[in-house]
Amino acid sequence: MRIGIGFDSHRLVKGRRLILGGVHIPFEKGLIGHSDADVLCHAIIDSILGALGHGDIGKHFPDTDIKWKDIPSTDLLKHVVGLMKADGFELLWLDTTIITEEPKIMPYIENMKKEISKYGIPQKIINIKAKTNEGMGFIGRGEGMAAFAVCVLRQSLYNPII
Ligand code: MG
Fold first, then answer.
1. For residue 12, what are the β-bridge partners?
2. CA-CA distance, 31 to 79, in Å (whole number)?
3. φ and ψ at 85, to 5 degrees?
4. Of the residues 10, 27, 64, 75, which has the fewest C-beta atoms closer than 10 A?
5. Does the predicted TM-score (pTM) go above 0.90?
6. H or E element: which one contains 120?
7. Domains in the chain, please, with CATH?
């Protein structure tokens, strides 16, 4: 068994599309970053890389590389799920939390799970929670949002690496 934790945060700015869990959410601001800045996908990716012992998202997809510019984060997720399978691990559970003051995330959660499931993580093992930061700090002021993810991996019985 392996456990991994992931965290990410990005700045919210006007003139960007808001993408969370691969889903476009209508809002006056979007997240800014080298890719589409999908904080949920980035936290999930870091949790899986953490459980695999493969460093972090910045090591695999450096923001100095033009190749990853404006790329959908779901493409990065697909790549990391591929690494996990190549290492002989399977995902047992993925729990996540998105923290943002606005917009309301709840109506989009099922769509996010459905979207993420297209990239190799079954919908039934994903949990997505959403909460505000009670008006405190950068999230409370609407300057950005953050996400956490924790995953549990199991080494496949049919493909042991140890
Ligand atoms: Mg990020």
1. 31
2. 22
3. -65, -40
4. 64
5. yes
6. none
7. 2-155 (3.30.1330.50)
